[in-house]
Specification:
Blueprint: E1 2-3, H1 6-23, H2 31-49, H3 63-83, E2 90-91, H4 101-113, H5 121-137, H6 142-161
Antiparallel strand pairs: 1-2
Length: 164
């Protein structure tokens, strides 16, 4: 299936422009910070999914909390995509399976280990595609992701206005 991210990227550009103007930064000056922020958000997502916590009987966080963490990461990978002017034609397989804990752990580990590829447009595009697939593997639809992204984007704008 083809994924259309145009409106998400346009909204991200507007948010990024607001942040960059307010803090006198740009994509190039804050590139390493964007990558680290994405890394942190991926860790926060894994923490809420709890797939790696074999020592714990506690269940994953509520679906809404996991989706919020997921779209936090989506904000940062979108910014990196804009920074590299990535061609955003994504084709995601139609038959993505919901994963069990062990399989999700492997997916998270692959995403973490491939963070070093976020240094050019091709690496960012491939990582973004795999992140989108993770969303489906977590049992989110594109509509779920889209709606949650715009809800969080509005919160992020409000935070900038309140000097977050």
């Amino acid at each position: 299936m083809k994924i259309d991210l145009i409106d998400i990227l346009e909204a991200q550009k507007i948010l990024d422009a607001e942040i960059q103007k307010k803090h006198n930064v740009n994509y190039k000056s804050e590139f390493e910070e964007l990558k680290l922020a994405l890394f942190v958000e991926l860790g926060e997502l894994a923490n809420e999914v709890r797939c790696f916590k074999f020592w714990s009987l506690k269940q994953p966080s509520d679906r809404k909390v996991i989706l919020e963490e997921y779209v936090d990461g989506l904000h940062f990978i979108s910014s990196l995509s804009i920074a590299f002017n990535v061609d955003m034609d994504f084709f995601i397989p139609d038959n993505i399976s919901i994963l069990n804990k062990k399989s999700l752990t492997i997916v998270f580990n692959k995403l973490f280990s491939s963070m070093e590829t976020l240094n050019d447009a091709n690496g960012v595009k491939e990582w973004f595609k795999n992140y989108l697939i993770l969303g489906y593997q977590l049992n989110f639809t594109f509509n779920d992701i889209h709606k949650a992204y715009f809800e969080k984007n509005q919160i992020n704008f409000q935070r900038q206005q309140e000097n977050y």
